[in-house]
Amino acid sequence: MDSFELHRYVYKLPVNAFREQLRFCMDLLSVGEFAHKPVRQLSLGQRMRVEIAMALLHEPRILFLDEPTIGLDVMAKDQIRQFLRAVNRKKPTASPGRNLPGRSLPRASLPGALPDERRYGVTTYMMFAVKSFTNQLAYRSEVWLRLLGNLLAILIQVEIWRAVIGSSGQEGASLDQMITYSILNPLLLALLSTNVSEAVDSSLKSGSIATELIRPLSYPLYLLAGSLGLSLYKLAFTVAPAFALAGLLFGVLPPASPMNLLAFVAALLIAMLMSFLLGYLVSLLAFWLMSHFALSWMLGGLITIFSGSFLPLWFYSSGWAAVAEALPFQYLGYVPAAVYLGTMTDEAMWRTLAIGLIWAAALLLLVRWLWSRAVRRLIIQGG
Amino acid sequence: MNIALFGKLIQLLIKEKMAYRGDFLLSAFAQIVSYGGEYIVIWLFMKRFPLLAGWTWPEIALLYSFGLLTYAIGASFSFVQMRELEGQVRQGTFDNLLIKPINPYFYLISRGFNLAYVAHITISGAVLIWAIGQLNVQWTLLNWAYVLLAVVSGAMIQAGLLTAIGAATFLWVRAGFLFTIFFRLKEFISYPLPLFGTFIQLLLTIGVPLAFVNFYPAAFLLAHDSAPLPGWAMWLAPLVGPLVYGLGYLLWTSGANKYQGAGG
C-alpha cells in the first residue's frame, strides 16, 4: 500500500484520479485482500497482480508485459487475462501488451530519452527517505546487536587510551578527551557507512537499474534520499542510544561550547554529504570496472589511514599529518570529533569547515560529470 | 578419493578465477591496501606511544599478523560457505548437497574454497616474516615447530567457530547476526589481552577461545605475561584448535542430520 502511495508521488498523479484508478485495478485483480501485507509475504501470483496494478496506476499509453503469467496457476492466469481485457475496454486507446501463452514480447528496453526535465519537489524525495527509514524498521531485532557492536568498538579504543595515556594526560590531550574522541568516532563511522555502492551495484547486476532510470526522477537524488533515511534511522535507533550508554559507562565530555556544538552539527552534515558522495563515486566508477568491491575496499583502506578515526591527527607524525590534512577523508572522523572537543582555534575550525564544503562541491561536480558519462555508457551497452 | 576430488575442485576454482584475472588481481590489490591501512594506523599509533601494555611495535605486528593469517586460512575453508548456508537452507538448494554420495560438509567447504584470501595471506605473511626478523627471539627448532602448530591450531579455532555459526543456521535459519558478533570479538585479539578487563579476558579464553589464536602463542614466544592464564597455558594453544574445530564439525553434522528444510 505504501508503495502505491509512493508511486503517486513519483508520477505526480492527482489524488482523485489515483484513487479511482487504484480502486479499478484493486477490484479487478482482487488485490484488496492483501494490499496491506508487506511485499515479501506475498505469493508469486499476488505479487504479479500487485505489480500489474502498480504499472497501470499512471495510465501509461503502452505497457509491455514479458510473460506476465509465467509460473502462475490456471486461475491466476485467467484472472490476469480477464483484467487486461477489461483494461482494454475501459480505455480503447491504450494498447496493453500481449500475453498469449508461449508468446513473449521483447523486454522493455531503456528509451533514449532519459528522465525527463520535469522538476520534482522535495516531497517526492522525502517519501523515499521515509521509505528507506521504515524499511529498516523491519530489522528492529538487529538494533540490539548494532548497539552492542558499537559499544564493543568503543570499549576497545577506550581501553587502549586508558593504557597509554593514564591519568597524567601529558600527551597533548587528556584521557577524558580521548575517551570522548573514542566514543564519537566509532559512532560516526556507524552513522556514515552508506550502502550506496552496494545498492547501485546490485541494481546494475540485476538490470533493475533500467526501471530505476526510466522513472521520471533524478536517480542520484533518489539515492541520496535513501541514504539519508538510513542515516536518520541509525541516528535514532543505534547511534543516539549508544552515545547515551557509552556516556554512562565511560563518561563523555560535553561539547566545548555552544558554538562548538553548532559547528559540530555543520561538520556532521558535511561528513554525511561527503560520505555519500564518496560511496556514489565508487559506484559510478564501477560502471567501468563492472565491480565495486575492489574500489570499496580501497576507499575503506584510505579512510582507515587518513580519517583519523582511531588515532587523532594531532598524534600523527608530521609528514603523515600533512598528507591527511590535505585529503578529504579527515572530514569523516577527525574533523567532527575535533570540532566537538574544541581542540582547534575558532578561526582554524571555521576555515577547516569551509575547505570541507569546497571538497564536497568539488566531489559533487566530479560525480555529476561521471554520472552523465556513465548513463551514456549504460545505453551503449544496452541493458 | 576425497583428496583427489579436493585437488580437482581447487584446479577448477583457479581456472574460474583466472578467467577474470584482472578483476581478481585488482580485488587482491584492494584488500592489501585495506589491510595495509590497518597496519599503518597501528604503526602510526606505536610511533607516538612506543609501548602498548608492554608490547612494542614489532610485537604487536606479530600478534596482529598471527590473527589475520590464521583467520585467512580458517575462513577460506569456512566463512563464505557458512554465510551462504542461510540462503541455501532458505531456498532449499541445500538439499542438492545432501543427495550427493559424499560427506556434505566436505563437499560444501571444498566447493566454496575461497581463493580470495590470498591477499590476506600475502600481507599478513609478509608482515609476520618482517616482525620475526625484528624480534629478539631464540629461534630453536622447538619454537619453529610451536609457531607452525600454533598457526594450524589458530586457523582451526577460527574455522571451528565459523562452522559452529553455520550449524546454527540449521536451527534458526537466520544466523547471520552471529557472524557480526564473531567479527566484533575478533577485533579484540588485534591487541594484547591484558588491555581489557577480566570479563573480556575470560570470555576470549573460555567462552569464545579466540585468545588462543594469537595472544597465548605470542605471549609465550615473546616471554610476555600471559594473564589470565599461567605460563603453561601456551601448551594448550595447539590443542584448543583441534578441539574447537572438532566441536564445530560435530555441531554442523548433527545440525545437518536434523535438517528438515526451511518449510514451504
Structure report:
The complex is a heterodimer of chains A (383) and B (264). Chain A is mainly α and 383 residues long. Chain A folds into two domains: 2-96, 3-Layer(aba) Sandwich (Rossmann fold), CATH 3.40.50; 129-381, no CATH class. Helices cover 68% and strands 1% of the residues of chain A. Chain A is built from 15 helices and two strands. Chain A has helices spanning 2-10, 15-28, 44-56, 74-90, 122-137, 142-165, 175-192, 196-206, 209-214, 219-250, 258-289, 293-306, 318-326, 334-341, 346-381; strands at residues 62-63, 95-96. In chain A, strands 1-2 form a two-stranded parallel ribbon. In chain A, helix 4 links the parallel strand 1 (62-63) and strand 2 (95-96). In chain A, helix 11 (258-289) runs parallel beside helix 15. Chain A is elongated. The two termini of chain A are 30 Å apart. With 264 residues, chain B is an all-alpha fold. Chain B has one domain (2-258). Chain B is built from twelve helices and no strands. The longest helix of chain B is centred in the middle third of the chain and has 32 residues, at 141-172. The two termini of chain B are 36 Å apart. The relative contact order of chain B is 0.14. Chains A and B meet through helix 6 and helix 12 of A and helix 2 and helix 9 of B.
Write the layout of secondary structure elements.
The complex is a heterodimer of chains A (383) and B (264).
Chain A: H1 2-10, H2 15-28, H3 44-56, E1 62-63, H4 74-90, E2 95-96, H5 122-137, H6 142-165, H7 175-192, H8 196-206, H9 209-214, H10 219-250, H11 258-289, H12 293-306, H13 318-326, H14 334-341, H15 346-381
Parallel strand pairs in A: 1-2
Helix pairs in contact in A: 1-5, 2-3, 5-10, 6-7, 6-10, 7-10, 7-14, 8-11, 11-14, 11-15
Chain B: H1 2-19, H2 21-48, H3 57-76, H4 79-91, H5 94-98, H6 104-111, H7 118-134, H8 141-172, H9 176-188, H10 198-207, H11 211-221, H12 237-258
Helix pairs in contact in B: 2-7, 3-7, 3-8, 3-11, 4-8, 8-9, 8-11, 8-12, 11-12
